[in-house]
Design a protein that fits this description.
The chain is an alpha+beta fold and 386 residues long. It folds into three domains: 114 residues, Orthogonal Bundle (Butyryl-Coa Dehydrogenase, subunit A, domain 1); 98 residues, Beta Barrel (Butyryl-CoA Dehydrogenase, subunit A, domain 2), CATH 2.40.110; 146 residues, Butyryl-CoA Dehydrogenase, subunit A, domain 3, CATH 1.20.140.10. It is built from eleven helices and nine strands. Helix 1 packs parallel to helix 4. The radius of gyration is 21 Å and the shape is globular. 49% of the residues are buried.
Length: 386
């Protein structure tokens, strides 16, 4: 059906190359994701068979340059994230964990040897990575992490635990952030190293077509060259988190747009009191409010993307985008579910699935509260985190 979510002819703001990339990802989602996503979600299955297809489309580490990476623009990455999340947040999350977190950590902070050895197979989907920062007792306050890396001669020994780590049970390498006597450092840990154990978290009500794990690190012995030489302190992982947060700004609007289009089509076909739902004033008001927020969210994402491409993007601007677009997207998905009535609680329709997924998206990479405080700090000059 016609995409009436674009009230401002936003397509005119994108280049032909950007639109071609978007259309390729949209076609992939329509052909390879939509027919199966309800089953994957219901059965809590992440379809590993799509990894190579995502690599073929150039979506793994797509914003990184060199070392076999696609080197696409920030806007192209954003558009890809939006189309993937229109399919499902869990599938966009795979691309985010692989590219914006694990690959970005190596690209930003790794040695030339590490980059040349790992980034090409990761871009090709031959090696999967994960990013271990969050812990059972250290979520919004990563500075409170208890995982510790002890130097022993030329080696490192890691002990600790991580929680909510995407892809850890299928990854070949893990980027693990640990406290040391010299502050927070990052390590590349092969997941087959003795003492590394990843266990998928089950019974999730959100992100069911995705993998999140608990990690236990018990005397994990690593050679000296496992450390990321360019990462010192929390700035190292935060720089990677900002890459992931950027993708979320776009992705959330994909879930919102898909929910809007679903309920728009439904309301035009569903008859109540001998008239289609779309003919009622209350229905039209809800549809208009959804379309308004989608257009505003897209403009926000586009401006942040252009700032990123020009090297002018600031952390508070990323927080503004994630806070606003996640907050508005989850409201759109919930309203769309309500408009579907009882049918809306089934997997025959996407909005409730999107809303459930967005409960995770609004939580990871910084909660609403954390991004509010980042913006408050910027506005007032007073940090209010403690």
């Amino acid at each position: 059906m016609l995409d009436t979510s674009d009230l401002l002819n936003l397509d005119s703001l994108f280049s032909a190359e950007e639109l071609n990339l978007r259309n390729d990802v949209r076609a992939f989602v329509d052909s390879s994701i939509r027919p199966h996503i309800a089953e994957w979600y219901e059965n809590a299955v992440f379809p590993q068979e799509i990894i190579r297809e995502l690599a073929r489309l150039g979506l793994l580490g797509m914003h990184l340059k060199g070392y076999g990476c696609p080197g696409r623009s920030a806007i192209e990455y954003g558009l890809a994230a939006m189309e993937l999340e229109a399919g499902d947040s869990g599938l966009r999350t795979f691309v985010s964990v692989q590219g914006s977190l694990a690959m970005s950590a190596i690209h930003k902070h790794g040695s030339e040897l590490q980059k040349n050895r790992l980034l090409p197979p990761m871009a090709a989907g031959e090696v999967v990575g994960c990013f271990g920062l969050t812990e059972p007792t250290a979520g919004s306050d990563p500075g409170g992490m208890q995982t510790f890396a002890r130097r022993e001669g030329d080696a490192w020994i890691l002990n600790g635990s991580k929680r909510w780590i995407g892809l850890a049970s299928i990854a070949q390498i893990a980027i693990i952030w640990a406290m040391t006597d010299d502050g927070v450092r990052g390590f590349i840990v092969p997941t087959d190293t003795p003492g590394f154990n990843a266990t998928p978290i089950e019974s999730k009500l959100s992100m069911r077509a995705s993998i999140q794990c608990d990690i236990e690190l018990n005397d994990v012995l690593l050679p000296a060259e496992s450390i990321l030489p360019g990462a010192r302190g929390l700035r190292g992982p935060f720089e990677c988190l900002n890459e992931a947060r950027y993708g979320i700004i776009w992705g959330a609007m994909g879930a919102a747009r898909d929910s809007y289009l679903t309920v728009l089509e439904y309301s035009q076909q569903r008859l109540q009191f001998d008239k289609p739902l779309a003919s009622y004033q209350l229905t039209q008001e809800k549809l208009v409010n959804m379309a308004l927020e989608i257009n505003k969210g897209m403009l926000l994402a586009l401006q942040i993307g252009r700032l990123k491409e020009s090297g002018q993007l600031k952390p508070h601007q990323i927080s503004m985008g994630k806070l606003n677009n996640c907050r508005e997207a989850i409201k759109i998905c919930r309203d769309a579910r309500a408009m579907l009535g009882g049918n809306g609680i089934t997997l025959d329709y996407a909005p409730f699935r999107h809303a459930n997924n967005l409960e995770s998206v609004r939580t990871y990479e910084g909660t609403d509260e954390i991004h509010t405080l980042i913006l408050g700090n910027h506005i007032t000059g007073i940090p209010a985190f403690r």
